[in-house]
Design goal:
Elements: H1 13-50, H2 56-90, H3 97-104, H4 109-137, H5 144-170, H6 174-177, H7 184-217, H8 223-226, H9 228-234, H10 237-251, H11 257-281, H12 289-294, E1 309-313, E2 316-320, E3 326-330, E4 341-344, E5 347-350
Helix pairs in contact: 1-2, 1-11, 2-3, 2-4, 2-11, 4-5, 4-7, 4-11, 5-7, 7-10, 10-11
Keywords: Membrane, Transmembrane, Transmembrane helix
Transmembrane segments: 30-48, 60-81, 113-137, 144-167, 187-207, 228-251, 263-280
């Protein structure tokens, strides 16, 4: 049996595209939510397992954070599923179809629940990336408050704009019903721009650390903190990349932006849970990470002398081990028995 074009609703191609994007965005959100559930329980297990009476102040805030974020994500997903069911099943004969139903019924209770949860999730995710940026930039030559002043102002502005956006959706006040200002665009733009800026400054800082560690110790050391994967997670690049795509589509008024908006809260939750997962594993960047990495220089006592090869050079010997560490030995005269070993900064000098 073949498909008949007469079965297609009498709607414009743009409206049909928006409805397709909405429905496919709901499906994609469900998939992302399923990944988030798994990641949440992994983080929860790690944090509970390592929590003791002495370090609970470190693990408990993260535990509370991911639990609140997970509850909000679950409520948002339930609201989205219920609202989609209303539009495509229960009230599918609404004049203009599901897309018109969405535009006309955005203030009903089930939609308000989703909007409030989405706003709170965005505020929590923005707050977490700001906190991670502060942690990573501590110890910088430039005072942290100078670096974070503009991002913090943007964060505060996005919170204020988000509250105005919520009030516009849920309030019947004449102030919001009579104004022509749509707070959706400035709210999304502020929050998404904040994440993009934070991602850039975190990546720049981690690249600087990577250069210093590689120069001092070699590329093998500190890889868990400065690898490409670590930078992507620590900077919430997943969320920022998605945010950039959403911002472009939204400003271009592309109907597909609807599916990106529905998926946004779940992407936020995934990006934040990945950061917490690294912290729970002990791989997340902390204030003393740089000093700990620099203190992990290999000790010459651990180097097996059988791994060395050497070449004679003006009465001296230069040993090169399989680990890539050089040990330079210089002898005064021919009395090798009177050699005294001095170990300093990863070099072995014998006089």
């Amino acid at each position: 049996m073949s498909l008949n074009s007469s079965w297609t609703p009498d709607e414009s191609s743009e409206t049909l595209l928006a409805e397709k994007g909405w429905l496919q965005g709901t499906v994609a959100s469900s998939i992302a939510y399923g990944i988030g559930v798994t990641l949440f329980f992994m983080c929860f297990h790690l944090l509970i397992r390592q929590m003791t009476r002495t370090n609970y102040k470190k693990s408990l805030p993260l535990l509370i954070y991911i639990t609140i974020d997970f509850i909000l994500g679950t409520l948002f997903m339930a609201s989205l599923a219920d609202f989609t069911q209303f539009a495509f099943i229960q009230y599918r004969d609404y004049p203009g179809g599901p897309n018109a139903f969405e535009n006309a019924m955005f203030g009903i209770p089930v939609d308000n629940v989703g909007n409030v949860c989405g706003f709170l999730m965005m505020a929590l995710s923005d707050g977490l990336v700001v906190w991670r940026c502060i942690v990573i930039y501590k110890g910088c030559m430039v005072p942290v408050w100078i670096i974070m002043l503009f991002p913090c102002l943007m964060f505060a502005a996005s919170i204020v704009m988000g509250i105005m956006w919520l009030l516009q959706l849920t309030s019947n006040s004449p102030f919001f019903t009579s104004t022509n200002i749509n707070y959706t665009a400035p709210y999304l733009s502020l929050s998404l721009a904040l994440n993009i800026i934070i991602t850039i400054v975190i990546v720049l800082r981690l690249l600087t650390y990577r250069h210093r560690i590689t120069k001092a110790l070699g590329s093998r050391f500190g890889a868990q903190y400065t690898s490409i994967a670590a930078m992507i997670v620590e900077s919430a690049a997943l969320y920022s990349t998605f945010s950039l795509a959403l911002l472009v589509l939204f400003l271009l008024k592309n109907p597909i932006s609807a599916s990106f908006i529905e998926l946004l809260p779940q992407i936020q939750m995934l990006a934040m849970l990945l950061i917490v997962f690294r912290v729970a594993q002990g791989k997340g960047w902390s204030q003393d990470t740089m000093s700990r990495v620099m203190a992990s220089k290999p000790s010459v006592q651990a180097i097996r002398m059988g791994d060395f090869g050497y070449s004679l050079r003006d009465g001296s010997k230069t040993f090169t081990g399989s680990s890539g560490i050089e040990a330079h030995a210089v002898y005064k005269g021919n009395d090798h028995d009177s050699a005294e070993a001095i170990v300093e900064e990863g070099r072995l000098d014998t006089y």
